[in-house]
Design a protein that fits this description.
Number of helices of chain A: 9
Number of strands of chain A: 10
Number of domains of chain A: 2
Shape of chain A: globular
CATH superfamily of the largest domain in chain A: P-loop containing nucleotide triphosphate hydrolases
Helix content of chain A: 25-40%
CATH topology of the largest domain in chain A: Rossmann fold
Strand order of the largest sheet of chain B: 1-2
Distance between the termini of chain A: 18 Å
Strand order of the largest sheet of chain A: 6-7-8-3-9-10
Oligomer: heterodimer
Largest sheet of chain B: 2 strands, antiparallel
CATH class of the largest domain in chain A: Alpha Beta
Distance between the termini of chain B: 12 Å
Strand content of chain A: 15-25%
């Protein structure tokens, strides 16, 4: 059994790095909502250019964990270190400025803005302060060009001028990712990017993520097990807010506790 | 975004009409129309300032008339104390309304939705009662201004045409300023915060300070309108900042088209012209105005500006 907090599983990281190399380090993170412990003493890390997936059944506290990582939720105890800095009490907008970009589970775009304006805003967020009161922001190459490049990258370059509200669901998810990568973050936090996607769109997204993880660390929360096992370098399994296992996909698949708690009969028959 | 052809034609005609109006009224000798339009232009300036926060920023301030009062009383009080120079009065009006907006904004912008509406309303009512209690300056009855602001002979605010043109120029400057502000980086942040504030913070914007800056700019602009209004009516009273006056400004913005450059001007013209016309027909003109406003809210979300936008043109628009 891979107990929460045991350090041996980290040494199994694909690149064999030691813990201190980690870009993101979470230690003993705990979050309570009233009587419910949504994050129960979570310890984990993500190293640079690694895709670390977090899986778990509904209500396992994956989104709560992400909320604390981005700074939208305050942890009750524990620490979060990003790139060597303690960011546990750093507000959301500043964490983003440090290079921690997130995409949302429920698509959260600027629906009344054109696709490219959504991405340009993300670029602008990282281009210093925005007390520039006169020049037309829609004509600034410094904002438009990276935005256009990000849209091309995720495959919706031809939809740049379409209102975000008019994009298909899959395109909206792609736009989400374009907004996250346009800022050249050091780490991406992706909250169920495959949710509601058709098989074609999922395949394209898996290809994109496989390319992206060569450039940037990714923490992926995802229900699509096929995608997770295809992409992840390491997987952490959450159940009721606790880490029940953490390690490379092969080990997770074989872990009896994970099977019992999460993957269930389906997985044991299919993979066993 | 380009305005559609009919809308641009309407706007061009409207501006030409406003510019030429004093010539027409001097031909007909109809001082009343010029006085009415001076009032329309001043209130359009106030509505334009409200549009910055309400239309572009999604901040539904129900206390915007407070700045009309602050700007107006700055003129009134200084005139009452024997300081008649506009070079003193106007900067005081502008700085005072900016400071009041800063304080109100600091406290109110932490709330959202209905709470924001209620707290801005509460602040403006507080200011209303403060001025109503100033016995030295007329209290409830208000304060008559015996001499309009003096600008060392540069411009005579007492001359009807000159004063009208000053108001019109300031309105057009405000619209021009709005167009630049709201398409700049700053404007994108303010509009983004209206569209999805949570997401703005997630992608790295400290939205509060931008929304606050916008709130202060709007308050300042409205304070200027208040200074004009005080000079126009030669009188200030707490009624200038009554909550129903704030409501009128909201109606102008909604009627004309929220978040459109010329919407507040359309709204001010429509509201005051309707008021003028309907009140000749019946004392209870608001009975007609109310349902009209309902129709706009229900069926013409973009207000008058939105209707102009929808006029079909010969050329195809995407």
């Amino acid at each position: 059994m891979r107990a929460a907090g045991s350090t041996d599983c980290w040494s199994e990281s694909p690149r064999g790095r030691v813990v201190t190399d980690a870009l993101l380090q979470v230690e003993n993170l705990t979050k309570r909502f009233g009587g419910i412990t949504a994050s129960d003493d979570i310890t984990m890390d993500v190293v640079d250019r690694e895709l670390h997936a977090v899986i778990g059944p509904n209500g396992a506290g994956k989104t709560t964990l992400l909320g604390q990582l981005t700074g939208e939720l305050a942890a009750n105890s524990g620490t979060i270190r990003f790139a060597g800095t303690d960011v546990t009490r750093v507000p959301a907008w500043r964490r983003s400025a440090l290079g921690l970009a997130r995409s949302f589970q429920i698509t959260s775009l600027f629906l009344d803005f054109a696709a490219i304006d959504n991405v340009a805003l993300a670029v602008q967020a990282h281009a210093g302060h925005s007390f520039r009161l006169w020049r037309d922001a829609r004509r600034e190459p410094a904002l438009r060009e990276p935005a256009r490049a990000a849209l091309e990258r995720v495959g919706i370059g031809d939809r740049a001028e379409v209102l975000a509200a008019s994009l298909s669901h899959g395109e909206q998810r792609q736009l989400e990712i374009a907004m996250a990568i346009a800022t050249r973050p050091r780490m991406l936090l992706l909250d169920e990017p495959m949710a509601g996607m058709g098989p074609d769109e999922s395949t394209r997204l898996v290809t994109l993520l496989r390319e992206l993880k060569r450039e940037v660390a990714i923490l992926l929360v995802e229900h699509d097990m096929e995608a997770v096992f295809a992409l992840a370098d390491r997987i952490t399994v959450l159940v009721y807010g606790r880490v029940v296992a953490s390690g490379p996909p092969g080990a997770i698949r074989a872990d009896p506790e994970v099977r019992r708690a999460y993957l269930g009969e389906e997985a044991s028959t299919r993979h066993g | 975004m380009m305005a559609s052809f009919p809308r641009r034609a309407v706007i061009a005609t409207l501006i030409a009409g406003l510019v030429l109006l004093p010539l027409l009224t001097s031909l007909t000798g109809d001082a009343f129309v010029l006085t009415l339009f001076t009032r329309i232009v001043i209130l359009a300036l106030a509505a334009t300032s409200l549009n910055l926060i309400l239309g572009y920023g999604g901040m539904v301030s129900f206390g915007h008339a407070a700045y009309l009062g602050i700007g107006g009383y700055a003129i009134g009080i200084l005139a009452h104390e024997g300081i008649g120079s506009g070079f003193v009065q106007w900067p005081v009006a502008i700085v005072a309304s900016a400071l009041v907006a800063l304080v109100i904004g600091l406290l109110c912008l932490r709330t959202r939705g209905v709470y924001f509406i209620m707290i801005t309303l509460a602040f403006s009512q507080m200011i209303y009662y403060v001025f109503a209690g100033l016995d030295r300056y007329g209290g409830d009855d208000g304060l008559t201004i015996y001499q309009r602001s003096q600008f060392a002979g540069l411009i005579d605010l007492g001359a009807r045409n000159q004063f009208y043109y000053l108001c019109l120029v300031l309105l057009l400057l405000a619209i021009w300023l709005t167009s630049h502000l709201m398409s700049s980086r700053f404007g994108m942040v303010v509009r983004g915060a209206r569209s999805n504030d949570r997401r703005m913070r997630a992608i790295g914007f400290p939205t509060f300070r931008y929304r606050l800056a916008c709130f202060v700019i709007a308050g300042t602009m409205c304070g200027l309108a208040g200074a004009l209004l005080a000079n126009h009516t030669d009188f200030v009273s707490p009624a200038m900042m009554h909550w129903t006056r704030s409501g009128d400004l909201i109606v102008m913005v909604v009627f004309g088209g929220m978040g459109s450059l010329f919407g507040p001007l359309f709204g001010a013209i429509a509201l005051l012209a309707l008021e003028e016309a309907l009140s000749r027909v019946t004392e209870y003109w608001q009975i007609i105005l109310g349902p009209l406003l309902l129709l706009v809210v229900l069926y013409a979300r973009g207000g008058i500006d939105g209707l102009l936008e929808r006029i079909p043109t010969g050329s195809r628009r995407d």
